[in-house]
């Protein structure tokens, strides 16, 4: 990261509205980071992974972009993970301080 980018990020995150939006995307950023690290560790290109999964390179690029309009299904994520020798693990993690009464009942 260049100091110019660090300065920009610090200024942007000092704004409450930007900080809130940034924090709300933390889980998505973390997931995409995991996906990209797994592919990098596997040593596969998007095209090579696509061939293993039985899809196109552009479909892999969309999956790795994290664009909400291209949210993959669990089955797709499982196929992606297996092609790299991984597995998908999904867990529900309780938020601190939140109860059914504090957020309303679903």
What features would you describe in this structure?
- The chain is mostly helical and 106 residues long.
- It has a single domain, classed as lambda repressor-like DNA-binding domains (434 Repressor (Amino-terminal Domain), Orthogonal Bundle), CATH 1.10.260.
- It has seven helices and no strands.
- The protein has helices at 3-13, 16-24, 26-42, 46-53, 57-65, 74-83, 100-103.
- α4 (46-53) packs across α5 (57-65).
- The longest helix has 17 residues, at 26-42.
- It is globular, with a radius of gyration of 18 Å.
- The N and C termini lie far apart (42 Å).
Please describe the topology of this protein:
Blueprint: H1 3-13, H2 16-24, H3 26-42, H4 46-53, H5 57-65, H6 74-83, H7 100-103
Helix pairs in contact: 4-5, 4-6
Classify the beta-strand content into a percent band: under 5%
Which word captures the global form? globular
Continuous helix count? 7
Residue-averaged pLDDT:
88
CATH architecture: Orthogonal Bundle
Number of strands: 0
Helix coverage percent:
55-70%
Poorly predicted regions:
none
| Number of structural domains | 1
Order of helices and strands: HHHHHHH
Distance between the termini: 42 Å
Secondary structure class reads: mainly alpha
Task: Write out key terms for the chains shown.
106 residues; mainly alpha; 434 Repressor (Amino-terminal Domain); 64% helix; 0% strand
How would you sum up this structure in a few lines?
This protein has 106 residues and is mainly α. 64% of the residues lie in helices and 0% in strands.
């Amino acid at each position: 990261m260049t100091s110019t980018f660090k300065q920009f990020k610090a200024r942007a995150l000092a704004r409450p509205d930007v900080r809130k939006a940034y924090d709300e995307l933390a889980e998505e950023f973390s997931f995409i980071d995991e996906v990209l690290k797994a592919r990098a560790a596997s040593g596969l290109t998007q095209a090579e992974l696509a061939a293993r999964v039985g899809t196109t390179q552009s479909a892999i690029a969309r999956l790795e972009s994290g664009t909400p309009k291209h949210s993959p299904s669990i089955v797709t994520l499982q196929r992606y993970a297996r092609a790299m020798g991984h597995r998908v693990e999904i867990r529900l993690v309780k938020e601190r301080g939140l109860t059914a009464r504090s957020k309303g009942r679903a």
